[in-house]
Amino acid sequence: MANSKSADTSDVFQELDVDRLEVNVIESLCFSCGKNGTTRLLLTRIPYYKELVISSFDCPHCNYKNNQLDPAIEIKPQGVRMSLKIENKEDLDRYVITTDYTSIQVLDLDFEIPPMSQRSQVTTVEGIIAKTITNLSEQKKVIDLTHPEIASKMEVVINGLIGIKNLTKPIPMMVFEDATGNIFVSNPVAPLADPRMQTEMFTRDSAQDEMIGLSVEQDTNNAQSIIKPLGTFNDSSVNNMNDEIVQFSDPCPNCQSICETNMKVTDIPYFKQVVIMATTCEECGYRTNEVKPGGGVEKQGLQITVKVSSPEDLNRDILKSETCCLRIPQLDFEAGALSLSGRFTTIEGLITSLYEQLKDTATAFYSGDSQSGGVIAKTEIFLEKLNNIKTCKMPVDIILIDPAGNSYVQSLTPPDLDPKLSIMRFDRTDEQNEELGINDMKVDGYE
């Protein structure tokens, strides 16, 4: 009987594969009438964003239906705040993906949709405004007779939202904030830099951690890392971790099963130590590779500009930290700190990664949408320019802007000055210190 039950379980919970785009059908309980209905699951990937599970439930007995969308990846280390200026119809047509923990603010109206007040959804900016107008109008009908003063304030907000929807209100600002870091607002001029939207990361407070289900006090039996070296662990290897690959046993960010992370410390000449980390989960197949600079945040931020015009320039080693923005002025392109993650590669490797990411995903998301033909055409032109950079037909400047000061580009003339490489240090702004979590650091009396 045990073997039969196990086989039935494996048949019900089929493996979701984002590359197959198959709908998985599961018989499940209806919470409305208590009889069995049908749940359909689809795992899909959205370009410039991430993987999602789209679920749809339908009960043939009571006709109850429910649709929802959930991110299929882990909670990010920091939250994300996106500030959008609405200037034209193109901004109203932007795709928006929210989670249960997304808050939406309209600053000009002093109005906010708080987190945990609505389910995850795929919609547009105009769709959010229209739905809010409908909901507020329905609530106003109820409140009109009992609380007329509140109803009059609601009328002001409703009229303001109608003005935004009709583009009669002067350039309002909408702010989308998500503590999990899993929100998405499309860029209509992708892959170019978005001229009307600013994206920033922020450090969650304890209340936000508790809201999204992150326990403040870690369970030492489950969450505490177990560290063990691969090989003999002796005093000399403790003093020189460059000779060791260290293995951590940690909960998988995807399925919470215990998985292994291999870590290696290595030195980059004329820079500093970096930590290379690779995680593989045998249970769910989750894999990730990361490069993190050794040491802490530098006293100043760093801006590195390298002129790329020859094969030698393409072969330069480059370390882009996870806090670093990438700019290519000749392409009017900018990749924020949230994209491309931290990596140690060559300039050619970085451009190749950018090319493959755009090629594999842009068409998949925008195909079939008549409004997205311009985005696809712009992406194809951009990909052609990236190829021209790789074949040295188009000289460009690669600019790394890292507030933490932990990025690096190899010099071809060490220790002499490299004529194609310029390095400038700068003082961070309060906003950059906030994103790095420096403002919340308490060092007085730490000893």
Task: Please give a structural write-up.
By secondary structure, this protein is α+β, with helices and mostly antiparallel strands. It has helices at 2-12, 89-92, 125-143, 148-165, 206-211, 235-239, 311-314, 347-366, 373-390, 430-436, and strands at residues 24-29, 36-45, 51-58, 65-71, 79-85, 95-98, 102-106, 111-113, 121-124, 173-178, 184-185, 197-202, 226-229, 245-251, 258-267, 273-280, 287-293, 301-308, 317-320, 325-328, 333-335, 343-346, 396-402, 408-409, 421-426. Strands 8-7-10-5-12 form a five-stranded antiparallel β-sheet.
Q: Report the principal-axis shape.
A: globular
* Rg, Cα atoms, Å: 25 Å
Main beta sheet strand tally, sense and closure: 5 strands, antiparallel
Cα end-to-end separation: 60 Å
Number of strands: 25
Low-confidence spans? 1-16, 216-239
Q: Please give the order of strands in the largest beta sheet.
A: 8-7-10-5-12
Strand percentage, roughly? 25-35%
Average residue-wise pLDDT: 79
Fraction of residues in helix: 25-40%
The structure class reads alpha+beta
Please count the helical segments.
10
